[in-house]
Amino acid sequence: MSSPAGPGAEDAPRQTPLGAGDPEAPEREDVSRPARDRAVEDFARRSGLRRDEAGQLDVLSAVGGWRGLLESLLPGLVYLVCVVVTGQLGPALTASLAAAALFTLVRLVQRQPVTQALGGLVGVGICALFARVGGDALDYYVWGFVTNAVWLLGLAASALAGWPLLGVLFGYIRGEGTHWRRDPVRRRAYQRVNGVLLAMFAARLLVQLPLYFAGDVAGLGITRLVMGAPLYAAVLWLGWLWSRPRPAPPAG
C-alpha cells in the first residue's frame, strides 16, 4: 500500500540521518506490506467471491452456483421431511447423510472439485453426530448455532480491528486492494455493510434459538433453510450495492 503523499514520501524516511531514528523501520514496513497484501489476496480468492462479466458481484458463484446451492439445501430439506413424516431420527439422519454423500460422489465421478460438497458432507456429519449423541431431532441444528456465533464474533472482531471482513473481500474483487482503508468514506461504507452481514448472523440466532428451546423442529428446520444460503446471497448483494464507490465528479 503506497503512501497518500505519493512515491516521494516513501523515499523521505531513507534520507533521515543515522541517529535521528531507526533507519531499518521503513525497510521492515516495505517487507511486511507485500506479505500482508498477499495474505489478504489469498484469503479473498479462496472466499469464492468474484465479479461477473458485467462487473457486478456474482452472487450465484458465491454460494457455489446452482449445484452448490442445491448441495447446501437438499440434505437439510431431506432431514426435515423425514423427521416430520416418519417421526424417527435414525432414517432421517441416514437420508441426510446419503444426500450429502451422493453430491460428493457425483463430483468425484465427474472429476470436478469436491471441496464444497465434501465440506457439506462433513457439516452434515457433525450435525448428525450432535443429533445421535443428544438423541433429539432438534440437536441436528446445534452445530449451526455454533458456526453462526463464531462468524458473528469474527465479523465483530474484524470491524473492531479496522479490517471489516466484507471490506477485505469486496476491496479485493473491486481492485481496491487495501487502499480503501486510507479513505474515510470507503472505510465507513465497508464497516456499514460488514455490519449488515454481522446482523444476518445475529438474526439467525435471535430467530432460531427460541424455536429450538420451544421444541419446534418443523419451524426451526424451515427457518434454517430460508435463512441459510438464500439469505446469505441476498445480504451479499445488498452489501455490494450499498458499498459501491461514488462516481468521480466531472472535471472542471
TrEMBL record:
Skewed-composition ranges (Basic and acidic residues): 25-38
Give the UniProt keywords, A-Z. Answer: Membrane, Transmembrane, Transmembrane helix
Q: Which residues cross the membrane?
A: 77-105, 117-134, 140-173, 193-215, 221-242
Keyword Transmembrane helix set for record: yes
Q: Extract the ranges annotated as region (Disordered).
A: 1-38
Q: Does the keyword Protein transport apply?
A: no
Superkingdom classification of source: Bacteria
What is this protein identified as? DUF3159 domain-containing protein
